[in-house]
Amino acid sequence: MTGASFRRGYQVIRTALQYGLDDMLPAKLTPWYYKLLRGSLFWLRNQHKDKPSGERLKLAMQELGPVYIKFGQMLSTRRDLLSDEWAEELAMLQDRVPPFCSTLAREAIEAELGQSIDSLFDDFDDEPLASASISQVHTATLKRTGEPVVLKVLRPNVEVQVKADLELMTQSARFVEWVLGDGNRLRPLEVVQDYENTILGELNLKLEAHNAMKLRGNFQDSDAIYIPYVYEDLCYPRLMVMEKVEGIPVSDIEALTAQGTNFKLLAERGVELFFTQVFRDNFFHADMHPGNIFVSRDHPDNPYYIGLDCGIMGTLTEEDQRYLAENFLAFFNRDYKRIAQLYVESGWVSANTDVPAFEQAIKAVCEPMFNKPLNEISFGHVLLELFRTARRFDIVVQPQLVLLEKTLLYIEGLGRQLYPELDLWATAKPFLENWMAEQVGAKAMFKKVQSKAPYWSDKLPELPELVYDNLKLGKKLMGNYQQLIDRYLSHQERAHKSNYLLITSAVLVICGTILFGQMDTLWLPCACIVTGAAVWLLGWRARPRKRKF
């Protein structure tokens, strides 16, 4: 472990202990050796005993920086796992992180623009509209159009904080692999590296701008979500300028209720948006905590979402898409045997897995979820049980699916807040069935041929010439092949002849040597030896030369 990782690790432990997070652990998780270790750190005491536990947890994550704040954001949506007090405190991490100095914000913005703010914007508000873990947002008016805009700027030195945490996570993952010797299955290092690529991408606001433009294009005519317009010419690695859009935070249930929002339709559209992004576009918003999702004030009876912060986006391979869709459909149809087979086919479990036993294990976990509304189902509990099952069957953790799992947890949290009675299965199943119908069968084949038609029409005139060239090349290769065979046979023939002569010469020399001791005359032994020498010379000259075939 490097010095920087060690220092950061100590800082994490110190912060946790100074906010008394260890006091929140249940007694069964604090055995005697833990208490002994905790007592050895006697200088690190709880300095916030006057604050409730939820606030202490929020403040600790806030102090530790972006990586931990994002973890708190995800936890804030899990009201089935946390008390209302904790969930409401952690919800403040979504857009109510203490802002940094407006002077620093101005300096950072002008450094990216290369000119003063007043030359491009009017009415720049030093008071931030929102402040989050990695950036904060200020409002202004664009001079050239008079339209209200928001300027999103990164926090000072945020890259240093994130990279220090990532280094600590990487070192910890290596330690876990070394200690457990289970790296091939869990692959913690790969998971951390995948998360590293994701969060480092979020530190580049130019990349986020491109993501937002792509997502906006995917839902250009959608009545389910609106993505604000991005001013690409005013976007830089540490600054992003986009359209200002008014909406109600999706977590503000009171305001949504007051305007008469159709919660059932809103929740159904949330599920449909998730599956559309994953399966139709293969480009999904992977940071859907309530601070990034708003609801329009227009048409509350036909509400739509407003999506912000496209820094973390996910994609899947075609194979993973298909396996996931088939898994979902098999799950909805309670076909646990097919689920087990899909896991083997995809390589997520070993080919030697006992499929019937695996099928029964999956059934035991998933069957209780059916015929229940969303408010009686906990994906968190199901995932925990599936991970326990994974240990028995050596399921390989798929790093590329970690973002998808996180997004599913966000969707569950939002669904619980908006419309707990949502029938998730009835909403998702028709979409997946239609998608699968488009991916397989005659219709899908026709679409693939149709999509490739321009390419083949461009290559078709070259086809006769390519066929002729390949036939000519084949004839030439056959001739070369015959030459190689002839050369090989000639080489083998020379080798056999050489070996025969060399063996004969050896026999003659040995016989001549033996006759020296058996006969009174010398002419016969000498004749044998001389003949053997002559035959050896012929054999030596007959040997094949080394050559490449």
From TrEMBL:
Alphabetic keyword roster: ATP-binding, Cell inner membrane, Cell membrane, Kinase, Membrane, Nucleotide-binding, Transferase, Transmembrane, Transmembrane helix, Ubiquinone, Ubiquinone biosynthesis
Keyword presence, Secreted: no
Transmembrane segments: 499-516, 522-540
Biological pathway: Cofactor biosynthesis; ubiquinone biosynthesis [regulation]
Annotated coiled-coil segments of the chain: none
SUPFAM superfamilies reported for this sequence: Protein kinase-like (PK-like)
Location of this chain's protein in the cell: Cell membrane
EC number assigned by the record: 2.7.-.-
Signal peptide: none
Record domain ABC1 atypical kinase-like: where: 93-342
Binding site for ATP: 129-137, 152
InterPro entries: ABC1_dom (IPR004147), Kinase-like_dom_sf (IPR011009), UbiB (IPR010232), UbiB_bact (IPR045308), UbiB_kinase (IPR050154)
Membrane-protein topology: Multi-pass membrane protein
Annotated catalytic residues: 287
The keyword Methyltransferase belongs to this UniProt entry's keyword annotation: no
NCBIfam families registered for this protein in UniProt: PRK04750.1, UbiB
Task of the protein: Is probably a protein kinase regulator of UbiI activity which is involved in aerobic coenzyme Q (ubiquinone) biosynthesis.
Recorded family membership: Belongs to the protein kinase superfamily. ADCK protein kinase family.
Official protein name in the record: Probable protein kinase UbiB
Naturally occurring in which organism (per UniProt): Shewanella corallii
